[in-house]
Specification:
four-stranded antiparallel β-sheet, single chain, seven-stranded mixed β-sheet, globular, 53% strand, mainly beta
Amino acid sequence: QVQLVESGGGLLQAGGSLRLSCAASGFTFSNYAIHWYRQAPGKENKWVATISSDDSPYYADSVKGRFTISRDAAKNTVFLQMNSLKPEDTAVYSCKARNYWGQGTQVTVSS
C-alpha cells in the first residue's frame, strides 16, 4: 500500500526557515519523481518543486533560490528546505508521488 506522510510544518515569523519531510512507503521510492504542492486558503493547489528519479531538482519561480528539494533514498524520504519564508508562503504543503498524495502539513508564516 502506497503511503506518503508529510511532517515538519509549523508557525513562524517571516525570514525564518523550515524543513518539510515526505516519508514514502509501499513503492520503489527511488524510481519515481516526487513533487511538492501547496494550497493557500481559498486558492488553487499549486506546484512548488519536483525532484526527478535521477535527483534533478525543479522549482516554481516563486520559490527558486529560497527552497531546496532533496531525497534521502535510504530513508525513503524527500525533504523541502524552505528558507527566507514570506507570509505568502503560508499554505498546506503536500507531497505527491505517482498518483498518490499525502495528507499535507500546515505552514504559517507571520509578518
